[in-house]
Amino acid sequence: MNILEYENYHEDKTHVELTFPYNTYLCSIPLDFSGVPLHWHDDMELIYIKKGCGHISVDFKEYHVTAPSLVLILPGQLHSIDQYMDESMEYENIIFSLSMLLPGKYDYTKEDFLTPLLAGRFTVPTVFTPVYPYYEDVVAPIDACDEICKTMPQGYQLYIKSKLYEFFFVLDNRCRNLTKPLKSKKTLDKMKVVLKYVENNYADKISIADIADVAGFSESHFMRYFKETMGTSFVDYLKDYRLTMAARLLQSSDSSVLSISGEVGFESLSYFNRAFKKHYGMTPLQYRKGS
């Protein structure tokens, strides 16, 4: 199971329909899953918090978010979603491909706003809350998309496209250049390669030498780089990632604990049980029964 499968409830491994790349998923933490590990993808993502509160990170900046609020994730941005203390959070995950809004030839909508935004030549806020002066203007087009998706009448795709253009108009006209990126692009791009490797290979044995080679560093340089960037060691990050995937499998499958421990990359069942209990405060079986 990779992160794309983890984030949604579909059998396929893509977020969006190729014929119309706009999808919405209703999610609840911790009811549906305990959290979404740090990852990135090429789609645009909006996290629309409807109830409760949680913790979201975007390009290593941490946000405590409460309902109502809208979090903007640009293609390629590193992001994660976690439970905040014992609180729950219900949110709408809106994922779409910008390709449906980008014409192939020169066009002002592409060259004057979308391309510069994606290239980082200017920025817009990441989190919008009701205290933000243009909050209602920002969320109104998204609310309109939600409403029409309830019935999906003939031509609803045209309506959604028009509302997405309206959404980006508000960002361009009223919100641009209000924030600045905190991390260098080089640091982010390097970490994206590392995290994508973990995402695709966490079930296999990954040594420090392996992952340092992926990053193009010596082992000592990589360990220092990862700790300084992520705030934790790579060994601990990999263990926590595997435990997160194990928790998801405990909730969504009937596989045995032994099978799941091997499937997520633990070579020892006893070590898996100890690590899981330390991380979640209960055994894997207790976690499964309580889910």
UniProtKB/TrEMBL annotation:
Domain HTH araC/xylS-type: 192-290
SUPFAM superfamilies per UniProt: Homeodomain-like, Regulatory protein AraC
InterPro entries: AraC-bd, Homeodomain-like_sf, HTH-like, HTH_AraC, RmlC-like_jellyroll, Tscrpt_reg_AraC-type_HTH
GO molecular function per UniProt: DNA-binding transcription factor activity; sequence-specific DNA binding
SMART domains, sorted: HTH_ARAC
Statement: the UniProt record of this protein carries the keyword Transcription regulation: yes
One matching Pfam family: HTH_18
Keywords attached to this entry: DNA-binding, Transcription, Transcription regulation
The keyword Transcription regulation is assigned to this record: yes
PANTHER family, sorted: ARAC-FAMILY TRANSCRIPTIONAL REGULATOR
Protein name: AraC family transcriptional regulator
Organism in which the protein naturally occurs: Agathobacter rectalis
